[in-house]
Structures are given as C-alpha cells and as structure tokens.
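Mods, move this if it's the wrong board.
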Amino acid sequence: MTFWGLSSRNVLRHRARNVLTALGIALSVLALYSILSFNGGFMRNLDAELKKTGVQFMVMPAGCPHEVASLVLHGAVIPTYLEPGLPGRVAATLGDAAEVVAPMLVFQKANKAMGRVDLIHGAVFETIGLTKPSWKVDGRLPAKPGEILLGSDVAEHDKTGVGATYQYSDSDVFSVTGVLAKTNSKDDGSVHLQLADAQRILGKADAVTAVGVRLRDAGGVNAEVARLSNAVPGIQVVTMGQVMNSISTLAASARVLSLSIVAIAVLVSVAGVMNTTLMAVFERTQEIGMMRRSARPAATSSGS
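Not the wrong board. Structure tokens:
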C-alpha cells in the first residue's frame, strides 16, 4: 500500500477527531486573516475620512485638543469656546497662505417637537465645498437665515425632507432646504445651520468651537502651524496627521491584543494537531509490534 493510501485510511478511521482538528486550524487562520484585514481596512477608511474633511489642521482652545472630536463623535459635553474675534486673527496671521479659514460651532440643543437632543453643526456654507468636498445634497445648501440642512440619518429617522420645518423655540423656526446624502460619518446624524443661526439659538454671539484651515500649499502645513502658534497665544493647533497618529496608536494597541489572542488560538490548534498525530502513532504502535512479531517466525523458517 502506498504512503498516501495508508494516510487516507488512517484519516478515515477517526473522521470526527480529524474533522474537529481541521476545523480548529481553519478557525485560527480565519481569525488571523480577519484581524489583519480589519486593521488594513480600518486604516484605509480612517485616511479617507480625514481626507474628506478638506482641511489640514484645526485651531482649538488650548488644553482640549480632542474635546471637539469627542463632542462631534459622541455628543459628550459643550467644549470651551474660542475667544471672540480669534477666527479673524487666524485669517489675518495666515494671510494669502490660507485658502479657507472656516469657523464652526458644534453643540447640543433640545428639540422639544421631536422629543430628543439634536447635534447642531454651525458652518459657513459659502466655503463648505472646500471643507466638505465629499458632500452631496438632495435639494440645496442653506443660503440665508432660517434655513437648515439635515443629515441623512436625521431625515430618515424623522421621515421628513425638503420643505419640512424644525422649531427650537417660538422665534427659531427653520425650513429644510436640503438633505445630506449618506457620508458614513458624524455628519449623517447632525443638523446643519448657518453659523450665525447656530450662535443665535445657542444664545452666545460669536461663539466658535474650532476653526478649520485649508492651505493653498499642503506642503507648508508644519511651517504655518508653527507661525500661527507663535503669533496667536491661547490656542492649540491639531493637524489631521496628529489625529490620525493618535487613532493609529490606539488601533495598534488593539491589534497587538487581538493578535495575541489569535496566537494563543493558533498554539492551541498546533497542540491539537500534535495530539491527533501522537494519538494516531500510539494507537498503531501495538498493531505494528504485533505485525513484526508475526512476521519473524516466517522469516526465520524461510532462512533455515
């Protein structure tokens, strides 16, 4: 009998055990492949998401570089606002080097009519094509006071669309001019207003959460950040690269933990294979010994 034939017969003798061993190996390999694929996809999506912002860095109050991101992502707490007039100082300091200096305001507002709290995003829509280049709108962007743009999730949840009205107080009634197409970002769950309208319903004139900056020359980010930090005290500048590095560090820690778990699973699978192989050998040891004993007399008699 050939080697492969003998191996096949041995595998078929213990079908259940061998199937379970093969299943354990397959699951370990699948887990390893899934984690590596997830990590690669996560980093690609993160890079694409940061590119969608259309800005190279954000100017925020000193001491809370990631507070705005926390609010935008999770609706946590209202952050410290920038000093009045600071967006103008940023624009004056950068001068012609800046293509866009876009102040923004992010906060929560009770929506009594809908019985919930809305995440409000106040923006300057004249420059939104540069700061949000991936946006696609069904309808049109707000062009005057009293107009509003809904994120896709908000519109879907409320089963509403262009022409509907939103009311935050007796004097703050807004008409929906457009619905934002799905972006798979926090913008889908936000209500977007003109910056002046957002400041009015917040009750804080000139309130600005952060300032997004897009430079004409992307290669000069580091130099302009250093110049801006020296010229305008009391601010903290966070580049998109720094945000990505911070998230990448967290992702790397999670990846190490996941790979450690997979490594343990692989070791368990290897131990299972070794156990299966050794059991197969030990089970056949007695059979092989008996075959050798039965073969000796025949060989002796033939020799004599």
